[in-house]
Amino acid sequence: MIDTTALTRTRIQDPGAIGCAWRNRTPGVWPKDGRLLIVAADHPARGALFVRGALRMASRSDLLDRLVTALARPGVDGVLASPDILDDLLLLGALEGKLVIGSMNRGGLQGASFELDDRFTGCDADTIAALGLDGGKMLTRICLADPGSAATLEASGRAVTALAAHAKMALVEPFLTVRRDAGRVENLLDPDSVITSIAVASALGATSAHTWLKIPVVDDMERVLDATTLPTLLLGGDPSGSPDITYAAWQAALAIPPAAGLVVGRALLHPLDDDVAAAVDIAVSLVHGGPA
């Protein structure tokens, strides 16, 4: 288990060490095959701590231990996380030679009355560029019955433009969304809804030159992925059901252009058998080929 005492001590006694470590970090290298396996860990910043109905992401030491294990596996290209987790991983030396994507909007807290007003409370484009990160990710939920979606779309458009000005990846994660009741928001995962969200997200910002999409694996993925020419990473989501079925769905979707890799968090960090290394190795084999 990761000893977080040293991390806290550094934050108290030498907070400037974080900036120094970012400046001295060995940057990641884009894979030669052009495909990416990114481990996601920005869920806690939005209050999303549950995995399969249990509060599994509440312990920072446990989360960091799982992330360090995952990032050390050959073939893992990088990480997507909120600034606090990125700084922890940086101080642990786990980001050396890895691509790093900062999570930008985490203000739509899970279960909140304002959940669909996804405010930008995390990384910004200028800081992403200054620290040498490789891009920024924005959750862009579109609820036709919620006026908060208008502000989210506007903010996402500005972020896409700002990231492109720095030649940084803008990773947009769109959903058509409905509010089922006061405390429950649901993403619509039928093919037509995902296609509609792709169409809206692809047009955000003043240029799409550096825009990538992050979308769920749903039915009829050939038709879904035909909705865009933008490079697309497939998300893992909250793991449920048989892992073998999940892996088979990822494999089938990855064979369809413009799918360019996976962004997976809970399914790899909290697999059913709790073997993080083995789950990550299977994902590596799906994205980059080779033995599982």
Summarize this, please?
With 292 residues, the chain is α/β, with parallel strands linked by helices.
From the structure above, extract its key features.
11 helices, 292 residues, alpha/beta
By CATH, the topology is TIM Barrel
Number of helices: 11
CATH C-level category? Alpha Beta
Low-pLDDT stretches are none
The major pleated sheet works out as: 8 strands, parallel, barrel
The fraction of residues in strands falls at 15-25%
Give, in order, the helices and strands.
HHEHEHEHEHEEHEHEHEHH
Terminal CA distance: 25 Å
How many individual domains?
A: 1
CATH architecture: Alpha-Beta Barrel
Let me know the CATH homologous superfamily: Aldolase class I
Average pLDDT, rounded to a whole number, is 95
What structural category arises from helix and sheet content?
alpha/beta
What is the total tally of β strands? 9
Query: What is the radius of gyration?
Result: 18 Å
Shape: globular
Helix content: 25-40%
Structure characterization notes:
The protein has 292 residues and is an alpha/beta fold. It has helices spanning 5-13, 16-24, 60-71, 83-91, 125-131, 148-165, 191-202, 221-225, 243-254, 266-269, 276-288; strands at 36-41, 78-81, 99-103, 135-142, 169-181, 184-187, 211-216, 232-235, 259-264. It has one domain (5-22, 40-288): Aldolase class I (TIM Barrel, Alpha-Beta Barrel), CATH 3.20.20. The chain is built from eleven helices and nine strands. It is globular.
